[in-house]
Design goal:
- It contains four helices and 16 strands.
- It is α+β, with helices and mostly antiparallel strands and 312 residues long.
- The strands form five sheets. Strands 1-9-8-2 form a four-stranded antiparallel β-sheet. The chain has a four-stranded antiparallel β-sheet with strand order 14-13-10-16, covered by helices on one side. A three-stranded antiparallel β-sheet has the order 3-7-6.
- It is elongated, with a radius of gyration of 32 Å.
- The N and C termini lie far apart (95 Å).
Length: 312
C-alpha cells in the first residue's frame, strides 16, 4: 500500500477540523434565522399597537329600559369594536368588522326599525353602537365615507346624529385620514355606551356636527273600535311618534360643509274607542293624553338649531 506523503499526512487532521467548524457555523446561523420567523403553518403575531395617549373624540349614549336581547346585541357589538386599530389611510367598515348580524354570529332577536314601525329582527341594537361611533369619529376628525339615517327618529341620539346599519348595503364606513394610527375603545355597561377614539398625536382638524330641524311632522291618529271597553271610553294604545326633516352640516377647520337633509317618518298614534255613550250616561274614561296623541307638541311651523358640544 502506498503511503501518503508526509505533508499530506500532516494536513489531514486540519482539513477535518475545518469541515467540522464550517458545519457548526452553518447550523448556528440557520437556527438564528429560524428563530426570527414563525414556524410553517402558524400566523405571524400582530405588530404591537403604538402608544396612544391623546383623546381624539368621544360620545356616550344611554340604553336603559331596553329589552334583554337588545342589550346583548349592543354589548356584543361594542366588545367586537373595542381595541380596534386603524392604521393611517385605513378604511373601516362597520358591517365587515361587527357583522354579519345573524344568530350564527352571536346576535339575538330584538326590536328593529322597518319603515315607520318596529318589528322583531336579529341584531337589533347594533345601530346604537354605529351611531355612537359615528359621532365620536366626526369629533376626532375622521372622514365619513358612508352613513345612513334611520327611517324613524331614535331615542338615544338627536335627529341627524344617528347611523343605521343593516344587511343589504346599509353600512357605516370611516377613513382614517389623520395621518396617524387611531385606536377605538368601546364599552356598554350599566345602561351606558361609550365610544372613544385615541391617537398618538393631538387632533389636528376636529369636527363638529350641527343640525337644524326644519319641520316636525305630527303623527296621524288611527282610531280602532273596541267593544270590550266601557261606553264613551277612549284609550291611547300607542302614542305615536313625530317625523322630522333635518338639515345637517359639518364644521371643520373654519369651514361649514353641508352634509345632507335627513327625513324621518312619523308613526301613527293608535286610539282604542269603546261604544258611544248613551244619552245622559257619564263616559267611562276620557282620552289619555300621552305624547302627541292628538296634537303636535310645538306651534307649527317650527325651526330651531341643535348643536353637539365639542369634546376636547
Amino acid at each position: 500500500m502506498h503511503r501518503l506523503p508526509r505533508f499530506l499526512r500532516a494536513a489531514f487532521p486540519r482539513f477535518w477540523l475545518l469541515v467540522l467548524f464550517a458545519g457548526l457555523s452553518f447550523f448556528f446561523l440557520y437556527s438564528s434565522a429560524r428563530q426570527g420567523r414563525p414556524a410553517a403553518g402558524t400566523v405571524p403575531p400582530h405588530p404591537p399597537a403604538p402608544p396612544v395617549r391623546f383623546l381624539l373624540g368621544e360620545e356616550t349614549t344611554r340604553y336603559t329600559s331596553t329589552p334583554a336581547g337588545r342589550v346583548h346585541n349592543l354589548q356584543l357589538a361594542a366588545g367586537r369594536l373595542n381595541g380596534l386599530l386603524l392604521p393611517p389611510e385605513a378604511v373601516f367598515s362597520f358591517d365587515a368588522k361587527i357583522g354579519p348580524y345573524t344568530e350564527g354570529h352571536g346576535y339575538h332577536s330584538a326590536p328593529t326599525i322597518d319603515g315607520n314601525k318596529f318589528i322583531p329582527g336579529v341584531g337589533g341594537g347594533v345601530c346604537q353602537v354605529a351611531g355612537t361611533l359615528y359621532d365620536a369619529a366626526l369629533v376626532a376628525g375622521l372622514k365619513v365615507l358612508e352613513r345612513h339615517p334611520h327611517t324613524l327618529a331614535v331615542g338615544y341620539l338627536p335627529p341627524g346624529f344617528d347611523a343605521m346599519v343593516a344587511p343589504g348595503g346599509l353600512d357605516l364606513r370611516l377613513a382614517n385620514d389623520t395621518g396617524h394610527p387611531v385606536v377605538i375603545l368601546a364599552q356598554g355597561r350599566d345602561g351606558t355606551l361609550t365610544v372613544s377614539l385615541w391617537g398618538t398625536h393631538p387632533p389636528s382638524t376636529p369636527g363638529r356636527l350641527e343640525t337644524r330641524i326644519l319641520k316636525v311632522i305630527p303623527p296621524t291618529i288611527r282610531t280602532i273600535p273596541d267593544p270590550s271597553l266601557p261606553p264613551g271610553t277612549r284609550i291611547t294604545e300607542n302614542p305615536g311618534q313625530p317625523g322630522y326633516v333635518v338639515e345637517r352640516w359639518l364644521l371643520r377647520a373654519g369651514h361649514r360643509l353641508p352634509l345632507s337633509t335627513d327625513h324621518y317618518l312619523s308613526r301613527p298614534a293608535l286610539i282604542l274607542e269603546g261604544p258611544p255613550a248613551a244619552v245622559g250616561e257619564v263616559p267611562g274614561s276620557p282620552l289619555t293624553q300621552v305624547y302627541f296623541a292628538d296634537r303636535p307638541p310645538f306651534p307649527m311651523p317650527l325651526t330651531f338649531s341643535w348643536q353637539r358640544p365639542h369634546t376636547p
